[in-house]
């Protein structure tokens, strides 16, 4: 009987925490449903924009300076870049409010070869995560209040375990929200700039080895194709002609020798 009485506060605390969590979940679900599009309350759309710009430029050094100035003009920053002897590429992060202006102006840095714009609507994900974060914060506050009112060590340990779980979950969800907000606030634009075919940074025209190899291979193939055609032509038309000539010779000067016999009679 005594043990049941001692266990009562801990059991009561566990039931209270479960009831509190359920109550907080239901109240926030109701708030989320009221703010949903069907309720008539207009939610701000949350969109993630990204784009690709493919350019042909006459100078890699000048294009690098132009891209850096372009990014600075729109209040963005470069998160990644790479360079080769004939091309450079950048990953620029531009404030979303300037995305379309930046895309239009970025296409003027060089000769525009292609431009692509993408958008991803994350409105539902954003507000769902926001609601779940609010729920966890309210639950954490109530658990901390329960902890201050705990009557024994077991009850305190149960509440502290729950607080640790909620805190870890909050940290993970806040990390997701921060990443999502950053993707919404800053649009990613990939810029690729390359020199004209066979041209180096100094303007020297490089030999087109690929084209040369293709031409050489084409000439070899044509040679053997023509050779095979001539051989086939000889077989089809040459052999009958040769056989006919041999027949004429055989009739006139060969064993039969009609012409030879005719000359003998004349003599």
UniProtKB/TrEMBL annotation:
<feature type="coiled-coil region">
    <location>
        <begin position="140"/>
        <end position="190"/>
    </location>
</feature>
<keyword id="KW-0175">Coiled coil</keyword>
<feature type="transmembrane region" description="Helical">
    <location>
        <begin position="223"/>
        <end position="251"/>
    </location>
</feature>
<keyword id="KW-0812">Transmembrane</keyword>
<keyword id="KW-1133">Transmembrane helix</keyword>
<protein>
    <submittedName>
        <fullName>DUF4349 domain-containing protein</fullName>
    </submittedName>
</protein>
<feature type="domain" description="DUF4349">
    <location>
        <begin position="45"/>
        <end position="250"/>
    </location>
</feature>
<dbReference type="Pfam" id="PF14257">
    <property type="entry name" value="DUF4349"/>
</dbReference>
<dbReference type="InterPro" id="IPR025645">
    <property type="entry name" value="DUF4349"/>
</dbReference>
<keyword id="KW-0472">Membrane</keyword>
